[in-house]
């Protein structure tokens, strides 16, 4: 193999690399889409939502948890809030300014909803008839984003209530219905007494019933309809709570049985509520 042949091969390799670099430099640079806002989810500490579904919703971050302040002083639905906060970084497909007398064309006169993330105001308009993207107004500009958030932006306050029946990490001291009473005893943190007594129910069965109430979650939270007829009541006392007790009313709505938390005026639709309301008992043995 001659030296000139080797040099020729090396020269071709060098020319190939130069051509590759030149072609790479000519390729258009793909830039990330512009986000709707510069806010990061962890920077958002308060949310306010005004829409046509009822009272204004006010939610605030407290010690890395979200709590509703208005219209219900209760823990908020963490999952829905995380989804809502994604709107802050939603990709913008186009943006423009428009005259005040043309706002009705974009569903902005008035907006369908107004959302405040901290102090930043987002006005929620209609959807584009061609691509069905959503118009969002910030300041004097309109932005088009994918319509991923209408169920959150246009929701009623009850939607943002935590589905948990009792406060997070609550410790119970008493569950009392018209048929049975389950009370924590001073003998120890996991010692419970059932009245009337049932010799078939062990202490494990009593603790399981307490845990059922402690971790119960609703399928939905709603406002009870006017004229709701109460069938029974349940009293729950929490340890180290300022409130004397939480009282739930039991009522039927169509084919479902719900629990109405009387101090909040909120009804919780719970799966297997009949089992929750039943007295602690040993599981039946299958034949």
List keywords for this structure.
287 residues; alpha+beta; 2 domains; 9-stranded antiparallel β-sheet; 8-stranded antiparallel β-sheet; elongated
List the helices and strands and how they pair.
Layout: H1 3-26, E1 46-51, E2 57-62, E3 65-70, E4 74-75, H2 78-85, E5 94-97, E6 113-117, E7 120-127, E8 134-138, E9 141-145, H3 150-153, E10 172-176, E11 181-184, E12 192-195, H4 203-214, E13 220-222, E14 230-238, E15 246-253, E16 256-261, E17 266-269, H5 273-277
Helix content: 10-25%
Placed side by side, the strands forming the largest sheet appear as 4-3-2-1-6-7-8-9-5
Count the strands? 17
Let me know the largest β-sheet: 9 strands, antiparallel
Over the alpha carbons, how many angstroms does the gyration radius reach? 29 Å
Number of domains: 2
**Treating each run of at least 4 consecutive H or I residues as one helix, how many helices?**
5
What structural class do helix, strand and pairing data support?
Answer: alpha+beta
Helix-strand pattern:
HEEEEHEEEEEHEEEHEEEEEH
Query: Are there runs of 5+ residues with pLDDT below 50, and where?
Result: 25-30
- Tell me, rounded to a whole number, the average pLDDT: 87
Name the overall outline: elongated
Termini separation comes to 90 Å
Oligomeric state of this protein: single chain
| Percentage of residues in DSSP E strands | 25-35%
Could you please describe the fold and organization of this structure?
- With 287 residues, the protein is an alpha+beta fold.
- The protein has two domains: 41-160, no CATH class; 172-277, no CATH class.
- The protein has helices spanning 3-26, 78-85, 150-153, 203-214, 273-277, and strands spanning 46-51, 57-62, 65-70, 74-75, 94-97, 113-117, 120-127, 134-138, 141-145, 172-176, 181-184, 192-195, 220-222, 230-238, 246-253, 256-261, 266-269.
- The protein has a nine-stranded antiparallel β-sheet with strand order 4-3-2-1-6-7-8-9-5, with helices on one face.
- It is elongated and about 85 Å long.
- Residues 25-30 have low confidence and may be disordered.
């Amino acid at each position: 193999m001659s030296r000139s042949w080797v040099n020729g091969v090396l020269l071709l390799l060098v020319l190939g690399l130069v051509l590759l670099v030149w072609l790479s430099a000519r390729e258009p640079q793909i830039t990330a889409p512009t986000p709707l806002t510069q806010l990061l989810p962890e920077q958002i500490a308060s949310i306010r939502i005004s829409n046509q579904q009822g009272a204004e919703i006010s939610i605030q971050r407290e010690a890395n948890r979200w709590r509703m302040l208005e219209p219900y002083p209760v823990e908020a639905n963490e999952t829905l809030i995380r989804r809502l906060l994604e709107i802050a970084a939603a990709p913008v497909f186009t943006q423009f300014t428009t005259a005040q007398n043309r706002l009705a064309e974009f569903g902005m006169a008035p907006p369908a909803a107004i959302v405040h993330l901290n102090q930043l105001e987002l006005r929620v308009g209609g959807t584009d008839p061609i691509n069905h993207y959503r118009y969002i107004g910030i300041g004097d500009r309109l932005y088009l984003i994918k319509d991923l958030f209408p169920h959150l932006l246009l929701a009623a306050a009850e939607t943002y209530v935590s589905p948990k029946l009792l406060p997070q990490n609550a410790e119970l001291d008493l569950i009392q219905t018209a048929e049975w009473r389950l009370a924590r005893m001073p003998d120890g943190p996991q010692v419970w007494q059932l009245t009337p007594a049932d010799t078939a129910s062990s202490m494990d069965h009593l603790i399981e019933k307490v845990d059922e109430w402690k971790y119960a979650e609703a399928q939905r939270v709603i406002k009870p309809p006017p004229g709701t007829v109460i069938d029974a009541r349940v009293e729950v006392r929490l340890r180290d709570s300022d409130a004397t007790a939480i009282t739930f009313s039991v009522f039927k709505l169509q084919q479902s049985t719900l629990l109405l938390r009387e101090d909040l005026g909120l009804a919780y639709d719970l799966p297997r509520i009949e089992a929750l309301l039943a007295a602690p008992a040993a599981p039946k043995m299958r034949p």
